[in-house]
Amino acid sequence: MKLIILCTCTSRMKLKVVAIDENLNVVHQNNVQFDSELPEYRTNGGVHIHADGLTVTSPVLMWVKQHGSVFWRRGASETLQNLDPDQDLHQLLQVSGSTGSPVWMDSSSTRQCEDLQAAAGGAMRLAELTGSRAYERFTGNQISKVRQTRPEDFLNPERISLVSSFAASLFLGGYAAIDFSDGSGMNLLDIRSKDWSEICLDATAPQLGRLLGAPVPSTSVLGPVSSYFVQRYGFSESCRVVAFTGDNPASLAGMRLQQGDVAVSLGTSDTVFLWIQQPSPALEGHVFCNPLDWRAFMALLCFKNGSLTRERIRNESTGGSWELFSLALRDTPLGNNGHMGFYFDSMEITPPAVGVHLFDPDDNKVSSDRAVPQVEVRALVEGQFLSRRLHAERLGYSISKILATGGASSNKDILQVLSDVFNAPVYTLDVSNSACLGSAYRALHGTMSQSVASFFDVVKKAPEAQLVVTPHPAAQQVHTHTHTHTHGHAQLLP
Ligand code: XUL
């Protein structure tokens, strides 16, 4: 086979890999489960949750997720360039990097967020500049917090990477640039000029521009793969490394999302994202630079209580069985006879709320302990999707067709609820792991002459998304009612 494009992609629980050939066929898929296969890191669900309940970190060498940061110590660049092909990477890298990397679930940097917003002239001004008001998980605020609270980790760093550019650095054997798209999740990048914002850099840490290096378009080729990978793993010397990016931008590529399509990812986090031509940032949601076309943008809404919350209710209400969870959805009516729930097991991102809020048909708040298990299952899933829809509509996004991805997109009963709540048909791709596939497509596109082939030309032979479910004819009526009703729970939709 002439060409294999290999890409890795991390999620909170596991590291995944997909390889495609030049005809876009998936020739290999695999993953490493962090908790069970790398028990030495002692993670739970891939992370360490600290005693304050807000700080969430992961061991750097486990290659976790976006919005994480890696602080390289002085001398690390030299280590990277001279990796000994007779040794494992994790042995060689003991000398570089820091111990715990704050990850996207972290919500402990509120003070740093407030300071950044004050420096930028307010939350809306910061959103106008960087695409988002200050968010705790965004890397600039995390860097600020490390500098203030763990000065020993900030002592003379040589470079600061995102987890995406950290992983690219390993393949490159040198520091890899941060791409515009993942760089948009830092509260530091001016999404219009595509350069670091001086105001934000100054408010975050001294010399930060130098420590981050210049950001590059997500389609950039960064250089040849390092000799370590050639000698130890037999990579071809002509293999090139294309800029790595975050999971949501990679998913946009994997779903070949075009203007007008809306993707709903039901994975580690639930996200709603779409391709937009012009940025109109708001106090809610994010605008990122587009990973496929540097002139365009992507809008993103992120919900922290996604799969983990579905898994908790599955464990508590249906004995850990997805079959019984699905049955509960089939056995309960659209609109759940007026029972409604909002489940924020940990501090939610959109909206910033916490706790379980379950309401009976008369709108009285009831305890989850007394709920009938099937009713609770539907209350959770309908509540999650109602919230996704309300927040997307608030930002003016109209949704007529949904492309679903992420782990839960393989469950047709969950997708039926998604379709009913949005009153829109739902499509999926064969591979539910669109972030990984998207990274492979991006790599293929990156290595071709981009003046000759656009991304969409390169992936035009990829399999089309398949229609999985259409909304029930009564869905619009039922959910217009619940929708109006939901607006009553104003505290959950601040
Ligand atoms: C996006 C975000 C999450 C993480 C984890 O801004 O924080 O989607 O990427 O999936």
What's the SSE blueprint?
Elements: E1 5-10, E2 14-20, E3 26-33, H1 34-37, E4 48-49, E5 56-59, E6 69-73, H2 76-81, H3 89-92, E7 100-102, H4 110-120, H5 123-130, H6 139-149, E8 157-162, H7 163-172, H8 180-183, E9 189-190, E10 195-196, H9 198-204, H10 208-212, E11 221-224, H11 227-233, E12 240-242, H12 247-254, E13 262-266, E14 270-276, E15 286-289, E16 297-303, H13 307-317, H14 322-331, E17 340-344, E18 355-359, E19 365-366, H15 373-394, E20 402-405, H16 412-422, E21 426-428, H17 434-447, H18 455-458, E22 466-469, H19 475-486
Parallel strand pairs: 13-20, 20-21
Antiparallel strand pairs: 1-2, 2-3, 4-5, 5-7, 6-8, 9-10, 11-12, 13-14, 14-16, 15-16, 17-18, 18-19, 21-22
Helix pairs in contact: 4-5, 4-6, 4-9, 6-9, 12-17, 13-15, 14-15, 14-16, 15-16
This protein binds D-xylulose.
Family: Belongs to the FGGY kinase family.
GO molecular function: ATP binding; D-xylulokinase activity
Catalytic activity: D-xylulose + ATP = D-xylulose 5-phosphate + ADP + H(+)
